[in-house]
Amino acid sequence: MNEYLSHQEIIDKCRKLNETYELDPGFFEAIVDELLDSDKDTESVILDGFKRLLSEVDHEINRMEASVGMQPSCFKGCAFCCYFPIIITKMEAKMMLKEIEKFPSDRKEKIYQHWESYFDEHKTKLDTALGMDLNGEDTKLNYKRLNLPCPMLDPETETCMAYEIRPIPCRTYLNYANPKVCAENHMPDEPFSYEFLYEHYMAGINEIMQALYENGEELFVDYPSDVWSYDYLPAWIKRRDEMEDDSL
């Protein structure tokens, strides 16, 4: 039987984490240095950096959890957090779309077909959600109340269709209490967010992009403007044709 943590136990462990754990940015920096020193082509450097820096966020969370004896209660098919608003940059959206293009044809086509039905099925909810203020005080709760699934959520399996390239918000929101708190509440108190790791991930990506840009390499993103352009993930996917034209 799983031994879930209480809310107070989670608070106590997070306090201990803040007091005793020291993050080593060298793990992120090493990825950047290795890729910029490699002989890989520009697109490979960007996309490998994107994937490896995302994975490093996972590794860093694992190290922090191990240091205080925490283990998430999240499990495959538990998709309650897949109804929160996911806000990413245009640069990240383009990287995600590039990676999906490289998926095996059957997997890729399944995603594309899902999007076709997704935007038709959820049109009314999407019109409401995508009109919400990105920085609004109640946006997160109001968005969650719409019960609008992420466009990457497989409706048959309740799993992510692009799990290995899921954005930072999806990786850094973890529950250590009984999973029922997520099932019974739109905004449960128990889950913990490691969103502070975003700055290390983004700093690494930005360093890669800046170095390539200054070297005169041809990029598939509009640097630096795409770094500062934010929107909801469904909004970027809805405009994917437009973004592909940007890259030509």
Automatic annotation (TrEMBL):
InterPro entries to which the protein is assigned, alphabetical: Puta_zinc/iron-chelating_dom
Highest taxon of source: Bacteria
Pfam families to which the protein is assigned, alphabetical: CxxCxxCC
Protein's name according to its UniProt entry: YkgJ family cysteine cluster protein
